[in-house]
Hints:
2 domains; 11 strands; 35% helix
Amino acid sequence: MTQPLFPNRGFDAFLFDMDGTILSSIAAAERVWTKWGRRHGVDLGALLPNIHGVRVEETIRRFAPPGTDIAAEADAVTRAEMEDVDGIEPILGAAALLASLPAGRWAVVTSAPRRLAERRLEASGLPRPPLTITAEDVVHGKPAPDCFLLAAERLGFAAKDCLVFEDAPAGIAAAESAGAAVVVITATHTHPLETLHPSVPGFEGLIVETGPAGVLSIRQRA
């Protein structure tokens, strides 16, 4: 038995955040950022909860001591994250759901640099996205809506007719600002996230249906 996540509504395309949404890289990312934080004397209790969903440069700018070379540090962190992909794996059910989607009707929209996004997607074994929007593609990262607006535009649709899958507050805010509908993936959450959007633990219980006009709808097993 199934029930629609969005009754009487279909979508032109699905837009997926990467880290924490379709794959889990938390352990690897926190290993790298822990080393960075200790090297710069940063409070890890403040740093680690805030590394997810935003661009590397923005995290460094927020937490690094005055006078830090932001670009150099961002490059070093990215290189370290590319080297450490141990434990990266897909969120339950993500591979099957992505493989079921029509070509050209979905994209990955991430705050990670392109080279890191490609590395993590490859390490996870997930299907290659038809379109990937990364940190370099926009001037303003999440929580600004630019990334989702650009992804929808490049797929040939309006963001208001797209469904975004997100896990982090910055990404949820970006999707809301873009006018998109949102599903919150809670697979990597350690604490409840207050949200008015539908929330699901992963993709295993989700079923995508394509209507006669190519409109996508999504149902959840009850």
